[in-house]
Amino acid sequence: MKVGQNELERIESGFTFVRYVGKVEGEHALAIMDEVEANAGEKAFMLIEADMTGLVGAAPEARRITADRLRRFSQVAVAIVSSSFAQRMIAKLVLTAVGMLGSESDLETGYFSNSEDARVFFLKYAERKQAESSSD
């Protein structure tokens, strides 16, 4: 699915891949997060792979919307795939804002240079969360 220049793919229920391209505006962030939330379903945790290698910027409104919507998930892992310091700083701004907004979310993040390493991060996260839920 395309949102502006950005691309979304539902890998499976609870796992969404987002490729950011160009500058993300508020309306793009809103549509992207609507899709992410719709894909969450009844999953105990949410996985989001954010490929930011094509990102050139994000409007303040886009960052605010993304942070606000991420904090609604009780358990979420976000893997940031980026190729530049500036892209990582945009991601860090958003993810720091999640905590500053009074999130109850158990947010785990990782920064990677490629999708393969991000997927390993998700596998380990999912295994740990499943083990935690079976020990309760």
What does this structure look like?
The chain has four helices and six strands. By secondary structure, it is an alpha/beta fold. The chain has helices at 26-40, 60-70, 85-100, 115-134; strands spanning 2-3, 6-12, 15-24, 46-58, 75-81, 106-112. It has one domain (2-119): Transcription Regulator spoIIAA. The chain starts with a strand and ends with a helix.
Would you summarize the structure shown here?
With about 140 residues, the protein is of the alpha/beta class. The protein is about 45% helix and about 35% strand. A 6-stranded mixed beta sheet has the order 1-2-3-4-5-6, with helices on both faces.
Number of strands: 6
Low-confidence stretches: none
CATH architecture: 2-Layer Sandwich
Give the structural class: alpha/beta
When the domains are counted, the total is: 1
Major β-sheet, in short?
6 strands, mixed
Taking the alpha carbons of the first and last residues, their distance comes to 37 Å
Order of helices and strands: EEEHEHEHEH
Output the strand order for the largest sheet: 1-2-3-4-5-6
Q: What is the helix tally?
A: 4
Nearest-integer average pLDDT: 88
CATH-assigned homologous superfamily? STAS domain
* Fraction in helix: 40-55%
Q: What is the CATH top level name?
A: Alpha Beta
CATH topology term = Transcription Regulator spoIIAA
User: What is the overall shape?
Assistant: globular
> In what range is the share of β-strand residues?
25-35%
- From the alpha-carbon coordinates, what is the Rg to the nearest angstrom? 14 Å
